[in-house]
Amino acid sequence: MAIGTSYKEIVKMAMPVIFGAFAMTLVNITDTAFLGRIGETELGASAVGGILYFVFAMIGVSIGTGTQIIISRRKGENNDSSIGQIFDQSIIILFITGLVLFVFLKWIAPPLLPLILNQPELVESTREFLAYRSYGIFLF
Prior knowledge:
The chain is mainly alpha-helical. It has helices spanning 7-38, 40-76, 83-116, 120-133.
């Protein structure tokens, strides 16, 4: 195990996480820019639906981060033969998680929206937003 880790190595390892967070920020900025021109209700739907989407997407992100940690540990132990098995298992877990989250965002969450929102037009716009955005959960 290397004792003298440099700042350059730390930044190099952190770059994928930084770029991932930056990409999500760009998506939110784009949503705000375009939907703000359409109307306040659509912008509100993007905000509510985006937060709901983000909360559930973080489940997949945390599984991916945990996988990276475990794979890094195996690489540090020079146990390269187990890395492929860990990767394969994580892909299966992420696919199943993505499927469950998709079902929730597409069909379970929309009927629950009136419980947290009191404006019918905002509820309907959020449902429409989630109908399209839910497909992205597999790629996220």
